[in-house]
Amino acid sequence: MDEAQFKSRIDQIFNDLDRYSYYELLNLTPGCTVDEIRSAFHRMALSMHPDRYQSHPDTSLHERLYAIYKRLTEGYKILMSTKDRREYDEGLAQGRLRLERVERRTLGPRPKAEAIENPQAKKFFTLGQQAEHQGDLKGAKLNYTFALNLIEDHPLIQEHLARVEALIKDK
Prior knowledge:
Radius of gyration: 19 Å
Structural class: mainly alpha
Low-confidence stretches: none
Mean pLDDT: 87
Helix content: 55-70%
CATH architecture of the largest domain: Orthogonal Bundle
Number of strands: 0
Oligomer: single chain
CATH class of the largest domain: Mainly Alpha
Number of domains: 2
CATH topology of the largest domain: Helix Hairpins
Number of helices: 8
Order of helices and strands: HHHHHHHH
CATH superfamily of the largest domain: DnaJ domain
C-alpha cells in the first residue's frame, strides 16, 4: 500500500470511527475467541501505531492515528474481559457501539507480587494476574502454573491458581 492509499484508509477509518463497533474496527465477528482478538489487535497495532509515524511530516496523520489506536485499545480491553464483553454485547444488541461507564470500576487491592521473592516467579504471577483481569482464565492458569513450578508451595500463587481452576471448571 503506497502512502496515498494509506492516508486515504486512515482518513476513512478516522471519519467513520464513531460508526464502528469494536468488532468491526478490529475486523472480528462477535463469536470470536480471545486468541483471535489478541491477534487482530496486534495486527492492527503493527500497522497503525502512532509511534511508527512520529516523524511523519503530516502531523494531522499522527493525530488521526492516535485517535484510531486509542479506540482500538479500548475495544481490545473491552473484548478481552469476559464481563465487559458480555456487557458490551448486550449494549451492542441495543445499538450502542461503545461501552461507556459513568463510574470507574475499582478492583480493590491486588495481592502483592512483592511477596514473591523469585523474580521469574514474580513475573509469571503478575502475568497471571493480568490475564485473569482480562478474562483470559487459561492464560492466567498457565502463568500461575509457571510461577508455582519456579517456587513450590507458595500460598499466594496456590490460592490464585486454585481460584482460576475453579472458575474454568465452572464454565
